[in-house]
């Protein structure tokens, strides 16, 4: 009966009225090492939030980029979206690996707010290319850079710090490409 009560409590916390879908439940799990000592095998709460937010943004960018070949006229935008998808596929694999090593399963889709933004972006065809560059190319990159920098400065986990440091240059390069694309659109 204790197992049932504990399971019901966990279900209540994750799906019931106490659940907070915008933030991951931060529980410290432990396992026993070979020498019999108890060891923590999970990432800290702020690192979980970072990994969750980064994964959601990346999924958002990938989903938004799926529609560019059908909706965009500009070959420059099509090339940029293909570049973004390829970079994001590599980045999401890295996030999944780091997350799973830390005992955390990252989200596999954009957040509910981002999903509604996707619908808005894809339903409205007026100025689609400019909105894609602003929302996906620029705003999402700025947000990713911000959360990567915050995580790099805040984390006490050396693996997370190395991960953020390794990817910051890539994110900054992506932002520069998006800004150059916006400049090109504004000239044309």
Automatic annotation (TrEMBL):
Pfam families on file: DUF4142 (PF13628)
Domain DUF4142 residues, every copy: 46-181
Region forming the signal peptide: 1-19
Keywords annotated in UniProt: Signal
Domain of life where this protein originates: Bacteria
Name this protein carries in UniProt: DUF4142 domain-containing protein
Species of origin: Advenella kashmirensis W13003
